[in-house]
Structure formats: structure tokens, C-alpha cells
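Section 5.1 Outputs to date
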Amino acid sequence: EVQLVETGGGLVQPGGSLKLSCVVSGVRFSSAAMSWVRQAPGKGLEWVSSIYNDVRKTIYADFAKGRFTISTDNAKNTLYLQMNNLNSEDTAVYYCATGTFRGQGTQVTVSS
């Protein structure tokens, strides 16, 4: 059974940082392709970033380039998303995903 559990969301001021974590089970983590997606209030799902863990390739949406960093810890089966210089437009529920599976999400709110 594939399971993804996100943590690390919260309330942060504009310009602040957060690091999201996602513990993944039920897949061959070291060779999996994994992603972060988000859903802002009243909007659809938006892709943020992906990592192809077998070749360590990372890709980012334009809004995430230079501010967000996706990474993995294979020893912990954990996917991360480091988010810096956050702004109000980053307010959303953030989900990790692999294949057709997605976690329950973690809320990120950027507000002063």
C-alpha cells in the first residue's frame, strides 16, 4: 500500500521560509519520481516541482525557480520541499505525490 504523509506546513510571514516533509512508503523510493503540487483556495491543483530520484533530476515551475528546492533523503524515505522568500500567493495546501497517489496535504499560509 502506497502512503504519503506530509508535515511542516504552518503560518509564516511574507519573506519567510518553511520546509515541508513527506514520508513515503509502499514504493521503491530510491528510483521513484515524486512531486509536490499545491491547491490555493478556490483554485485547481498546480504543479510545483518534481524529482526523478533515480537520476537525481529536479524540475520546477517558473514561480518556484530560485525560491523552492526539492530534495530527498533515501535513508528516511522522505521527500522535502524547502520554500524561501514566501509570499501570499504561495498560500495553499501542499501535497506530495507519486504516480497516481497523493498525500492528505499540509496547509501553508503566508500572511502578516
